[in-house]
Amino acid sequence: MYMTSASRNDQTSQSRTCGKHSTSNIEWVTTKKPEPSPQLLVPRTILLIGPTGAGKTPLGEYTEQHGYNGHHCTHLDFGATLRNIDTSLAPVGKLTTADITFIHKVLTEGALLEDETFYIAEELIKAHITANILTKNDYLLLNGLPRHIGQAKAIDKIVNITNIIYLHCSPETVYERISQNSGGDRTSRTDDTTEEIAKKLKIFETRTKPLLDHYTQIPITTIEISPKSTPNSIWKTYNEPLS
Question: Which of 69, 109, 157, 240 is deepest in the core (most CB within 10 A)?
Answer without folding.
Answer: 69
